[in-house]
Design goal:
Elements: E1 16-17, H1 24-36, H2 44-47, H3 60-70, H4 75-83, E2 87-92, E3 95-102, E4 110-115, H5 126-135, E5 143-148, H6 167-183, E6 188-192, H7 195-206, E7 210-215, H8 233-248, H9 251-258, H10 260-267, H11 271-284, H12 292-304, H13 307-311, H14 314-318, E8 333-341, H15 351-354, E9 358-365, H16 373-376, H17 378-392
Parallel strand pairs: 4-5, 4-6, 6-7, 7-8, 8-9
Antiparallel strand pairs: 1-2, 2-3, 3-5
Helix pairs in contact: 5-17, 6-7, 9-10, 11-12
């Protein structure tokens, strides 16, 4: 990684290098808990994962097999992969923000902030970072890529314990991170899916430093002036599936929103409970079933860093008494907005709907890919970002 770790000269604060290294006792404890954990008895529901009416969740067989593989899973290989990229820690206010970065030596490299969601993590962007390292050297890398662990996730510190903590505050921390790294003058592009898409929108709508936004997830109710009949067959099918998801398949989100203390404690008690809760999402929200090792890496990261109870705070805001969404007028993005449509996302919103939420100037409809787009389709995300930024950075940003 020589060269990709050269901090920009314009940085106001130099971040501290960081090495991912979970204490051995935590890893040993995980193995012990897995060995002692039992799996519930067979039931009609857990024996019939493809039910007659609606989904029942995970099969008992899947959890048995996953438990067996997790017991011999080598967490240190995940650490090695993370440490193959420059890792940093920077204190912003009272929050210690961990982030991965690929810094460029090009003076005009575009700062690009990549934001994950739940139950994602920085692991989502490793394939994209690998593609960048393979194609470019530090001298010709066209981007400064910054991939933070959101507050409460993995190695970043969690929200304060004595007061409420909002998504707007998270966006302010992320904007401050980019300013401290020296991108306050040039500005930056924000990209995200899931919760990362909400944060990218907040950055674009509320912070002058964010000059453009690219999303691969954009929940918005159907605009009154756009009929379902006006959509293509593919977009109509996606919108109908998304609306069905909101009605029938978001019980997990309402639980995390209405009883975050309870579910956080439950999922912190037993690693198998966490595996079932998160593993289900990776199986159901992806286009193609991901390798089990990929799911275990993500769940291990969550378990070993106590991420889950610290990271579900955004759900209270999204499903609270006065929720906001991408179509909320105050979150309109009057800056270049790009959108990548992946058909097997939980709610693949039609391009015409997204266009009502901001100055949409670039979009692409893909024929494969799901909710974890950067993980599932890193080449597509890379090409989309390169195309979007090439279109807007020089021409449209000058007029913002």
């Amino acid at each position: 990684m020589a060269g990709f770790d050269i901090i920009p000269k314009a940085a106001k604060t130099r971040p501290s290098p960081y090495k991912v290294s979970v204490p051995e006792e935590r890893v040993v404890e995980l193995k012990q808990l897995l060995k002692l954990s039992r799996i519930g008895p067979p039931t009609y529901e857990n024996l019939h994962a493809e039910p007659l009416h609606g989904k029942f969740g995970l099969t008992r067989e899947w959890l048995l097999n996953a438990k067996k593989e997790w017991e011999t899973f080598d967490w240190r290989l995940v650490e090695d992969e993370l440490n193959s990229f420059p890792n940093y820690m920077l204190k912003i206010g009272q929050t210690d923000l961990h982030f991965l970065a690929l810094f460029s030596e090009k003076p005009d490299a575009v700062p690009l902030l990549l934001l994950h969601g739940w139950p994602g993590s920085i692991l989502e962007f490793l394939p994209l970072l690998s593609l960048m390292k393979e194609q470019y050297s530090p001298k010709d890398l066209p981007f400064n890529l910054i991939v933070p662990s959101l507050p409460g996730y993995s190695f970043s510190s969690g929200p304060p314990l004595d007061r409420n903590f909002t998504m707007l505050e998270v966006a302010e921390l992320l904007n401050s991170l980019m300013v401290e790294l020296g991108f306050g003058e040039t500005g930056y592009v924000a990209q995200g899916g899931d919760i990362g898409s909400r944060l990218s929108r907040l950055l674009g709508a509320k912070h002058e430093g964010c000059k453009a936004v690219h999303l691969n997830f954009c929940i918005v109710p159907r605009p009154e002036n756009i009929s379902m009949e006006s959509l293509s067959d593919a977009e109509r099918a996606g919108a109908e599936r998304g609306m069905a998801f909101v009605v029938n398949e978001n019980a997990y989100a309402k639980e995390q929103a209405s009883r975050p203390a309870t579910i956080g404690l439950v999922l912190s008690t037993n690693p198998l409970a966490l595996l079932a809760w998160i593993g289900e999402k990776f199986l159901e929200w992806t286009d193609e079933t991901p390798p089990l090792s990929e799911i275990l890496a993500s769940v291990s990261l969550y378990w070993l860093t106590d991420t889950c109870p610290r990271a579900i705070y955004p759900y209270r805001e999204s499903y609270g008494p006065d929720p906001t969404h991408h179509g909320t007028p105050s979150l309109y993005i009057n800056k270049p907005l790009g959108y990548s449509y992946f058909p097997y996302d939980v709610y693949p919103v039609p391009v015409s709907w997204v266009a009502t939420t901001g100055k949409l100037c670039w979009s692409k409809i893909h024929t494969k890919g799901g909710h974890f787009a950067a993980l599932e389709q890193p080449k597509a995300i890379k090409e989309d970002l390169e195309s979007f930024i090439a279109q807007v950075w020089k021409r449209e940003l000058d007029s913002v």
